[in-house]
Amino acid sequence: MKSEAAAGAPAEPRVFATTRWSLILSAAGLGADEQKGREALAELCRTYWRPIFLFVSRHGYSVPEAQDLTQDFFVMILESNWLTQADEHRGRFRSFLLKSIQNFLSHADERNRAVKRGGRIEFVSWDEWLAEAPSQVSVSAGTFDSLPPQHLFDLRWAATVVEHALQRLREECEGKGRLRLFETLSGHLTSERGDLSYASLAAGLGIAETIVKKQLHNLRQRYRWLLRDEVAQTVQDPADIDDEIRHLCAVLAKTD
Amino acid sequence: MKPLAGPSSSVAGVVESPGKCEQCGATTRLGEAVCLRCLLKEGLEAEGEASAEVFESVLGEANVPDTHWRLGNYEILDEIGRGGMGVIYRARQRHSRRIVAVKRVLTYQADSHETLARFRREAAAAASLDHPNILPIYEVSESQDGLAFFSMKLATGGSLRTVASALRGKARECVELMAKVARAIEYAHAHGILHRDLQPGNILLDGRGEPLVGDFGLAKWLDEESDLTQTLTTFGTPGYIAPEQAEGAHFSPAADIYSLGAILFNLLAGRTPFVGANALSVIRQAAATPAPKLRAFAPSLGRDLETIVARCLERDPKARYHTAGALAEDLERWLEGRPIIARPVRAPSRVWRWSRRNPIVAGAFSASLLLALAVVWLLREQFNARTTRALEKSIALLPFEYLSDDKANAYLADGIQEEILTRLSKIADLKVISRTSTQHYKSSPKNLPEIAKQLGVAYILEGSVQESGDAIRVNVQLINAQSDSHLWAEKFDRKLSDIFPVETEIATKIADTLQAKLTGHEQRAIAAHPTEDPEAYRLYLQGRHLWGQRTDTGLLKAIDYFNRALSLDPNYARAYAGIADCYITLPAFSKLNPAECRQKAKLAASRALEIDSDLADAHVSLGVLLMNDGKVAEARNEFLRAMQFDPNYANAPHWYALRVLVPLGQFDEAIAQLKRALELDPLSPPFNANLGMGYTMARRYPEAIAQLRKTVELNPAFSYGHGALGYALDASGQFDQAIPEMEKAYELSRDFHVLGLLGHAYALRGNREKAFQLLKQLQDLEQQSSDWNYGLALIYLALGDKNEALNRLEESYRSGEVGFTLNIKVDPMLDPLRGDPRFENLANQIVPPASR
């Protein structure tokens, strides 16, 4: 049957796709490609700003201060030759970004921040960023205060990866006019087979149970693809994807 | 959801977790429900992944199309593309079967009110333009679930971006196209609309290759009411964006002309005038260096074309073509082989520092991400023709002066002014400002135009009242505020018993002068006599005067006056309405039993309406009371009738919003109504504060805080303003800033309501001891009046004692407090309780699920 064949079909080979991080690393300092590299970098920063902001906040800064620092940090990354200065073994984007923000913060007080808040033009529209992609992660009480900042960074990073994948899945469903389906089934992407009440889902959607099962299976598989793609964008070597996911899972384990 | 450790974690979206995941035991969730770890581990599953094609094909098999796949009158066919804010579809119009393009906001972004409002502005701006080279907008509408969309002509020829390479080397065609585009922009400018994001992607082409300028997405529409214009997020596309735009200079037509030049440059040369690694670098170059010469890239082009383009790209806006039309003309001259007007720039160009401040300091992200350059921008002083048109039928009545010596009767001047106002207020075709906004002005101020602008009116009525014995002399004059010229003046000498016809005559004359159209019903309403007994009238006026002062003794005395008026004239409906108003207001200012007061208010209001069913204030009173009893549909009716009978009665939209719309979560309409109330009573401190409260309940915190800061700035001694600001700051997690405001509110009024807020804020900030202190303080007060239990509930909730908080809320409901508890379904402070069956049960009792 078609569905089985589809399920068994090999995923798109990843080797040929240039991930953002690998593009950035290879393009650093190289003329025409540099533009592409910078665009890719900006795109990644835009996705992963929350871990940075949270990391900065965790160091005790107020919201306006944290916003300023986060903004300055991104400006520094995009404006300067940050990339070319990095050493050869740049590892993954996440760890590299973490090292950079750690470094950045340690010099924050020394830096001359002569420009006062009121007088300058802001290049980050916080309201718009917050409104565009509202995000909420719920953690056990005390986690925020007790977790070391770099773990908090990783936690928020994990959330961003997953959220972004879900968002893309949502958009894909919407593009095909199946938003309602997504909204009904997306909460069950990880549910155990036995726990699900296919009957009630089917009733709510007005379709047969077998179709619900098939669609959920389809959504899961696509979600996996998207999730792995998200992670892939931030590593150099596709072989690192599994390891990166495991690392993030391990961080989440520490929060309990 | 309450933030764990303060505002910064909540900005980054980290809150407290509800519990462990059933499958893996993790306590970290995405949102409130879904387990993050399980979702992450899913990425390691060996079961396989689905490519896009496979996924879409299986997805399409499910026969569960989205119900909103039909948008209004349009059947959606397929998706054409995604813009910065919305999705564009190809669609078929139902009745005409015409194929059009439909653009709507992406659903996941629909929560952003700024996005939606920007979207609507785009549509409204573009729809008003009618020009062969501007993409026509057909219809602006909203789908059933409230998503805004508009339909427009489907451009089948692509855009200048897609055809750019095909046009390379065809200078004439490029110039022809751009000349038409320039004419279109000239037309738009003439209608007061700037495009501000002209770039090849926005210039679409129809099937015959005719250019159609579209996506006036960032068109600035000078809107007198637009508070969105306070934060201008723009950005145009680097390469085409005029250098002064990035600095936040006054936006002008010159910016569009720069963009036109840049587009032409791009078409002819194959690249934009400036290129760079990112938006910042491009803009910096554009600001700092003269544009390169066209012929450096396309040597075969003549000098004239180079000159035209160079003139568009001048860094000094004033050096460019003054109008898009002038540019179009020069392009047309070039096409016809005639000499052009523009002269070549002498080289070297003077070094023109167009900005004395430091140029752009921080970095920018690549514009391909459509990130915003946010510039704080205030446009208060800009009005255009559209605004003045709306003002023509608007008037404010300044306080009448009382000229006699015996000041004990000074209330008469107020009373007569109010009677005239009440009559005018019923005329739907007029905008009449409420008394609260005018009452603190002098009777004959010197700076009329200024005052008129503050109030938003074109006309002012001044007057004076003089008594001698039995006779009353009323003097009035109608003034055109903008020109500060008198239109007419009238004098009336009557006895008090004959004063009503005078008031009617004045009102009618004003309506005539302002050319307001009156319906038959309105004419009759204006001519009505509230009472025939002059003594009763006097007593009534005194009662109203006392009610306006809002003190507990004052209110009780007012009731007494109204009752005395009624003993003289039992059919004096307005006196009953006055009693109702007093009883509604009393609980907040005294220790009387709220439930009893409400009962008396209801009786009085009903009686008033029995006698005179048109009384707007009685309808409003009744509406408020009905809502307190949970009778939603009936309450709504009362408010709607009030607004129908007295379109300028500001209290109607105000209470309708606060007591019906907000508790029901109908925020868009609530805010519209609150704004309407404010329009009618612009200086009213409570109205200003309540608009802020409305935003807070709608969780539009930035807007709430901005509005409340404004309120507090205008009325620093208004305790409620500070309290409301504190509330908004608390709700948005900014406890450090909330507390000083709340302290200030308490300092100003010693109002116990604030103690509850303070306790809440302190507890959430982590000062539990202080919160406990306040708890005790509140408990010791033994207040049994309105909202006391609510205050306690807040503190308990913030301290983490949900059970006690619920107890208090239930008690609040039982004891008849209504005030803040009415917002139980929407109040951000009560979020931690949501989902609890006891809470939900209580909420449904207070605000029964509506059967619309």
Q: Helices and strands in order, then pairings?
A:
The complex is a heterodimer of chains A (256) and B (852).
Chain A: H1 2-8, H2 20-27, H3 31-47, H4 49-58, H5 63-79, H6 82-85, H7 93-106, H8 126-132, E1 137-139, H9 143-146, H10 149-175, H11 179-185, H12 198-205, H13 209-232, H14 240-254
Chain B: H1 7-11, E1 14-16, E2 29-30, E3 34-35, H2 36-41, H3 52-61, E4 70-71, E5 74-82, E6 86-93, E7 99-105, H4 113-127, E8 137-142, E9 148-152, H5 160-167, H6 171-190, E10 203-205, E11 211-213, E12 231-234, H7 243-246, H8 253-269, H9 279-288, H10 303-312, H11 324-336, E13 373-376, H12 385-391, E14 394-397, E15 401-402, H13 411-425, E16 431-432, H14 435-438, H15 448-455, E17 459-468, E18 471-480, E19 485-495, H16 499-513, H17 520-527, H18 534-547, H19 552-568, H20 573-589, H21 594-611, H22 616-628, H23 632-645, H24 651-664, H25 667-680, H26 685-697, H27 701-714, H28 719-731, H29 735-749, H30 752-765, H31 768-781, H32 788-799, H33 802-814, H34 837-846
Parallel strand pairs in B: 14-16, 14-17, 15-17
Antiparallel strand pairs in B: 2-3, 4-5, 5-6, 6-7, 7-9, 8-9, 10-11, 12-13, 17-18, 18-19
Structure described in brief:
The complex is a heterodimer of chains A (about 260) and B (about 850). Chain A is mostly helical and about 260 residues long.
Q: Report the biggest beta sheet of chain B as strand number plus sense, adding barrel if it closes.
A: 6 strands, antiparallel
**Number of DSSP-assigned strands of chain A:** 1
Shape of chain B from CA axes?
Answer: globular
**Number of helical elements of chain B:** 34
- Estimated structural class of chain B: alpha+beta
Query: What's the helical proportion of residues of chain B?
Result: 40-55%
* Total helical elements of chain A: 14
The biggest chain-chain interface is: A-B, 111 and 99 residues
Which value, in Å, is the CA radius of gyration of chain B?
32 Å
